[in-house]
């Protein structure tokens, strides 16, 4: 490096017009290829095991020091990667709670990556798009003007942020400066059905699982309000500071929603932070017909939800909303002077998104939300949310009608838990595995009151009622097969 | 909802063949549009202020309940968003430390969003792609086989995770279960030049800023090793448990790299966790010529870096590597049974990425890394890293030659801090603002030893030496202009 290189400087862009034309042509081929894939997804199996040779290549190929070119890399993708996904884009995928994505969302991701801003909050359009999306979200969730928020990588980060704001706002000592050792022990309350993000967040936040009070649930898997009240009183008596109640809109096991209005009342009476994990359930609030079951959600101090689940957007994008913008700012703001020095130009003004998250650099995940909302309209998304609930009820009704099937829980929303009747847990698990392996459908499973259940979580905009019948048919047929093998 | 809808079920996919053809055609138009944008980026200004009408639309348009169609949404993007980014894709953008992105990375993002897997770690190809990328990264960073890791939204999350693993591994009490209140106070050491992520992480982790010991730096902005040693001894004497030393490979102010080998020795001697923030600097390790300055990096217990900076990939993607895979697992694993129940099918086997992060659902950000590496080769990326350093030295030499300019710090890597000589801080700031506002170039600024400096951070694969001359020319011309206005 003593001498400057004399040769032309390099770039990762194509070297000349011909190179640009070639890459652009490849891009058009890719676009057609991925459109073919999405458009034809119904015709293929939901899931298929990766063949050994693809697996071997992904396990054994060394660092690619020399490039093979974009066309060859794309061929590898088409051969070894694209066909062997988890299957969540398929109309008969209802495993865990996943999103199916849309072609509009996919195109927006291409545009976002081509424009490629760092949405840390500069004086630029991408920052304004994210802020607009947050405003729209706040309005849709019934939260007041001035609500602050952020798009995140997903629900767990959104939940973590909401909880961190609540901790700072309600701890009554300087958590950021002095740390947890300087104050009394803190307590957070959530039902036993609360998603595992809460334990993980409390661990990371240094509070430990000891700071979690797991409250029992009623027969509908909803938090017992009386039990929370008692726990708060006992904690106060013991010198533990009650900090926050976490309500859930749509539990992961059965789709239950806590009595959010009752929790809001309790938080108001006791001076606690009210955080809601609405990972998928929160979007039901957009529907006038479904909203009554979520009354009180709009009273959250902080609300976390995903858009890559029931918002039908490609991974990843979640959102946190915080009612008190100043409390939010106070919990994260650092006042990094190098970002604030300028009165004009790209560093002037702007919203310091980095003051709302542990992150600094941020991708333009707002664009896919913005374009999807504008292109398809929020009403069409809401109609599909309603349709997913109707389909879940349709499946539940079918299960209830079939002598060989039985429901394992109530169906308050879009989740259906059921079993092949008269089969053991192991046999029901075997039935589920065959349904998955044969590429018919991918539900997942859960355990309710100690018993295994096949679990259908429907956040899929491609599903039709016939797809749920196909699942029921398959479980019956394979159930007979598995039980028949018993002898 | 008492009755099932009789009409055809809806979807967010196009309704029929004609609809698919129309959307696909729009996709091709978008692809051409964004290719035109990227290919022509050099011809436009680096940054331009958003016009009032675009700003107004983004500030005032309400929730789009009815959709306007994808074509109209795209027109809005082209009109109001695309031209008014922060400018980081432009060859004369060197503000903060940002990435410029590549067209191959952009196409990979489209494919990732079209396939749309949830890379939580199932029995699928996307999980294997991410694991392969992590293996490649470990090898490139000189870390041993068996090193664990994760792709993250960026360096701050990667750093947070590394620190959290270190805390769990070295705290000598059960942080996850019992929380910080159950053990002695902990201390983390980093230089005064350590990036602000560290304070933010300690705050979130409940340790408070009080747990940070900020160590002084020498004239080259490198951590004073003797001072760390003394601080550790004093802390031990005071009953504080030394936990971790954070070394930096490439500080944000000047590009300095701590004496990583000396820190590694010290950590080994004292039993401390050795974490390195290599947000951009770590990638210099890939170059044989630059590597000597980073000797010791391969000895890190955990190493965090970005690929959307010096890896030239679109936002967002960072990486954390952890040498001791078991320590990593122990710090985050939850053993969520609903993910592990199956012996076959999509939930069998797999790597539980969710056990390496506070997150659960995860996007397919691995694909752009994998395709970029395969298509362009790691060696070409490394050559561009070297070129960026050469260009920084070229600018530094030009600054040193010009009577009207002066260097504000040494140039150990790819950052150049300089001033218009004989101008005040306010005047230098005015010069920078005019350079930015006129769309000539976007450097950012910093303060070194109490004085304002224009700061060029070069992680841009599109820059040429002529671009740095254009900046120097502009600073001289505008410097004369600003100083001339003094009278």
UniProtKB/TrEMBL annotation, chains A, B:
<dbReference type="InterPro" id="IPR002129">
    <property type="entry name" value="PyrdxlP-dep_de-COase"/>
</dbReference>
<dbReference type="InterPro" id="IPR010977">
    <property type="entry name" value="Aromatic_deC"/>
</dbReference>
<keyword id="KW-0663">Pyridoxal phosphate</keyword>
<dbReference type="InterPro" id="IPR015424">
    <property type="entry name" value="PyrdxlP-dep_Trfase"/>
</dbReference>
<dbReference type="InterPro" id="IPR015421">
    <property type="entry name" value="PyrdxlP-dep_Trfase_major"/>
</dbReference>
<keyword id="KW-0456">Lyase</keyword>
<protein>
    <submittedName>
        <fullName>Glutamate/tyrosine decarboxylase-like PLP-dependent enzyme</fullName>
    </submittedName>
</protein>
<dbReference type="GO" id="GO:0016831">
    <property type="term" value="F:carboxy-lyase activity"/>
</dbReference>
<dbReference type="GO" id="GO:0030170">
    <property type="term" value="F:pyridoxal phosphate binding"/>
</dbReference>
<dbReference type="Pfam" id="PF00282">
    <property type="entry name" value="Pyridoxal_deC"/>
</dbReference>
<comment type="similarity">
    <text>Belongs to the group II decarboxylase family.</text>
</comment>
<dbReference type="InterPro" id="IPR015422">
    <property type="entry name" value="PyrdxlP-dep_Trfase_small"/>
</dbReference>
<dbReference type="GO" id="GO:0006520">
    <property type="term" value="P:amino acid metabolic process"/>
</dbReference>
<keyword id="KW-0210">Decarboxylase</keyword>
<dbReference type="GO" id="GO:0019752">
    <property type="term" value="P:carboxylic acid metabolic process"/>
</dbReference>
<feature type="modified residue" description="N6-(pyridoxal phosphate)lysine">
    <location>
        <position position="309"/>
    </location>
</feature>
């Amino acid at each position: 490096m003593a001498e400057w290189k004399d040769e032309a400087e390099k770039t990762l862009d194509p070297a000349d017009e011909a190179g640009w034309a070639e890459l652009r042509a490849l891009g058009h081929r890719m676009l057609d290829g991925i459109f073919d894939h999405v458009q034809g997804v119904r015709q293929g199996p939901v899931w298929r095991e990766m063949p050994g040779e693809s697996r071997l290549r992904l396990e054994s190929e060394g660092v690619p020091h020399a490039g093979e070119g974009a066309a060859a890399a794309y061929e590898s993708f088409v051969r070894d990667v694209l066909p062997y996904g988890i299957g969540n884009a398929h109309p008969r995928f209802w495993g865990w709670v996943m999103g199916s994505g849309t072609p509009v969302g996919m195109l927006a991701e291409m545009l976002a990556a081509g424009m490629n801003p760092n949405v840390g909050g500069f004086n630029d359009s991408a920052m304004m798009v994210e802020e607009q999306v947050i405003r729209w979200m706040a309005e849709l969730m019934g939260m007041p003007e001035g609500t602050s928020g952020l798009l995140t990588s997903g629900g767990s980060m959104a939940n973590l942020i909401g909880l961190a704001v609540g901790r700072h706002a309600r701890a009554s000592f300087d958590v950021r400066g002095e740390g947890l050792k300087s104050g009394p022990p803190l307590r957070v309350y959530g039902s036993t059905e609360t998603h595992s993000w809460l334990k993980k967040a409390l661990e990371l936040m240094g509070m430990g699982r000891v700071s979690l009070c797991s409250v029992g649930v009623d027969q509908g898997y909803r938090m017992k309000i009386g039990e929370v009240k008692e726990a708060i009183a006992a904690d106060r008596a013991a010198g533990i500071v009650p900090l926050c109640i976490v309500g859930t809109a749509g539990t992961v096991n059965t789709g239950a929603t806590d009595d959010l209005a009752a929790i809001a009342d309790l938080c108001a009476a006791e001076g606690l932070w009210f955080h809601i994990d609405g990972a998928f359930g929160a979007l039901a609030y957009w529907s006038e017909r479904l909203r009554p079951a979520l009354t009180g959600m709009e009273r959250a101090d902080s609300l976390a939800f995903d858009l890559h689940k029931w918002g039908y957007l490609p991974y990843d994008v979640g959102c946190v909303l915080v009612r008190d913008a100043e409390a939010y700012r106070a919990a994260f703001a650092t006042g990094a002077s190098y970002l604030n020095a300028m009165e004009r130009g790209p560093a002037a003004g702007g919203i310091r998104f980095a003051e709302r998250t542990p992150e600094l650099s941020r991708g333009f995940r707002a664009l896919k939300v913005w374009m999807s909302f504008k292109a398809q309209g929020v009403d069409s998304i809401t109609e599909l949310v309603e349709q997913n609930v109707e389909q879940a009820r349709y499946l539940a009704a079918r299960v209830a009608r079939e002598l060989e099937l039985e429901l394992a829980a109530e169906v308050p929303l879009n989740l259906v838990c059921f079993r092949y009747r008269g089969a053991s847990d192991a046999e029901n698990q075997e039935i589920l595995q065959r349904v998955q392996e044969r590429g018919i459908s991918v539900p997942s499973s859960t355990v309710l009151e100690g018993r295994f259940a096949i679990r259908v979580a429907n956040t899929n905009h491609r599903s039709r009622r016939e797809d749920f019948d196909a699942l029921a048919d398959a479980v019956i047929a394979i159930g007979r097969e598995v039980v028949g093998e018993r002898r």
